[in-house]
Design goal:
Structural class: alpha+beta
Helix content: 40-55%
Bound molecules: zinc ion
Largest sheet: 4 strands, mixed
Mean pLDDT: 87
Length: 142
């Protein structure tokens, strides 16, 4: 693997940004490159998972750090205005996420959360996280 200078890297990231409209599209492209078959926004499953991996009985949830209360700097930022309102709303979202994940596991699906901040830090052009690929392979039984 070749090392990039920060300038090269920011150029690459800028190009990625202009092509992709969001983290979900980057994930979709990485899945396609890895040859992983998926369906998007699966309405028939609890929580309408962002991705259902067809061959692995597994779902991927792409979560924005603010809305889903990630334990990261972005997730910890709460607007000064109406703090109580936002804190209650994000707490509700987190409870719903936990409930949905439990329901999906009860249906036999593996649940994998991809946080927006990690997707930003990681250039998905380089591929999906190794741990995720290993889990997909394990669940696909290959
Ligand atoms: Zn985060």
């Amino acid at each position: 693997m070749t090392r990039e200078t920060p300038e090269q890297r920011s150029r690459v990231m800028a190009a990625v940004k202009s092509r992709d409209t969001g983290p979900e599209l980057a994930v979709a492209q990485a899945l396609r490159r890895a040859g992983v078959r998926y369906r998007r926004d699966v309405k028939r499953l609890p929580g309408r998972p962002d991705f259902l991996l067809i061959d692995a009985r597994m779902v991927l949830m792409v979560h924005g750090c603010f809305w889903h209360g990630h334990a990261c700097p972005r997730g910890a930022r709460v607007p000064q205005q109406n703090r109580g309102y936002w804190q209650a709303k994000i707490a509700r979202n987190r409870r719903r996420d936990q409930r949905v994940a439990r329901q999906l596991r009860e249906l036999g699906y593996g649940v994998w959360t991809l946080w927006e901040c990690r997707l930003k830090r990681r250039d998905l052009q380089q591929g999906l996280p190794a741990r995720l690929l290993a889990e997909i392979a394990r669940r696909a039984g290959c």
